[in-house]
Amino acid sequence: MDNIDGVLLVDKSPDMTSHDVVAVARRTLNQKKIGHCGTLDPMATGLLILTLGRGTKIQDLLMAEDKEYVGSVKLGEVTTTQDRQGEITETQQVPDFTDEQIKAALDKFAGDFYQTPPMVSAIKKDGVPLYKLARQGKEVKRDPRLVHVYNYEVRDICLPEFSFRVVCSKGFYVRTYAHEIGAELGCGAHLSALRRTKSGKFSADGAITFDELKHGSRESVAERALSLAEVSRLRGA
Length: 237
Description:
It is a single chain. It contains eight helices and 14 strands. The chain is 27% helix and 34% strand. The strands form three sheets. Strands 1, 2, 3, 4, 7, 10, 11, 12, 13 and 14 form a ten-stranded mixed β-sheet that branches. It has two domains: 6-64 and 201-235, Pseudouridine synthase (2-Layer Sandwich); 67-198, Pseudouridine synthase, CATH 3.30.2350.10. The chain has helices at residues 18-29, 59-63, 99-107, 130-135, 174-185, 210-215, 218-222, 228-235; strands at residues 6-12, 34-37, 45-52, 67-75, 77-79, 88-91, 111-115, 124-125, 128-129, 145-158, 161-168, 189-199, 202-203, 208-209. α3 crosses α5 (174-185). It is α+β, with helices and mostly antiparallel strands. The longest helix has 12 residues, at 18-29.
């Protein structure tokens, strides 16, 4: 049976890892050579790009592209993971912020700035992912990274939560963004919801759902894959 070459856009469901999606794709397509571009945390949903067969050769290229996310921030609670899946380490009263005050906090994180990756991340220290060290209760020094926010907007504000959209560079941690916005506002915060809507020229709109991937036939899922020529055309390469 020939390998399928190309890219498959999957709309990841919550409460699963990106590796879980790859494992299901390998079973459905009966193919080992499958990778993914840009890990999504278990709580996150949305666009996960799978590279199939020879498509794995352009994985780094696809991962380097800008991303768009929509999400929600909960003010007044700091957690160990900077998102709602961690343990709450600090709680504070949330002042009656105006829309302008919240927008002003986000304004501080626009364009180029440095971000320190969280301990709960896939970055490796001496070959070991940081999240594994974090599980052992260890904390190691992380070098700040230069990141870029191209565009952002505050959406609905219903204190202590507000929703947002952000377009950012590769290597950007949205939960660290939420954490730092909370620090800027002086009351602490964590990321309470996250969905990746775009990556480069690819969108979650029309992506195959996890259920379709899991329960579909090899043929029906293969039909949804983009060929390498289609990917090249879409990217304008």
